[in-house]
Design a protein that fits this description.
alpha+beta, six-stranded antiparallel β-sheet, 2 helices, 6 strands
Length: 99
């Protein structure tokens, strides 16, 4: 079953983005609406799918790990341009919990 097939409306997670700097966000989704509890960026699971698609289409090197049950991108490691130093990024979802 794919992510959308679960139709989850209540869940929480911690997201990290590491591109030169580490950005951390704690997000809770209530009635399908994401709420930022901590951090600066309201990360969504749907946004991670968009990021994965962008990386698949544009990156020189890529590794994506998907959640074994829900099928969303848990970890995305990307090197956007293998000719550029320090453009590697890592995006992770941790502590995913269905309410």
């Amino acid at each position: 079953m794919q992510w959308k097939g679960f139709e989850l409306t209540e869940y929480s997670f911690i997201a990290t983005d590491a591109c030169m700097f580490l950005d951390y966000s704690k997000v809770q989704v209530v009635e399908g609406k994401p709420q930022l509890l901590e951090g600066k960026q309201k990360v969504t699971i749907e946004g991670r799918f968009d990021l994965a698609k962008k990386a698949i289409l544009n990156a020189d090197a890529l590794r994506i790990e998907y959640h074994p049950l829900y099928g969303f991108p848990l970890n995305i490691e990307v090197d956007w341009d293998d000719q550029v130093v320090d453009d590697e990024c890592s995006y992770s979802i941790m502590e995913f919990k269905v309410s």
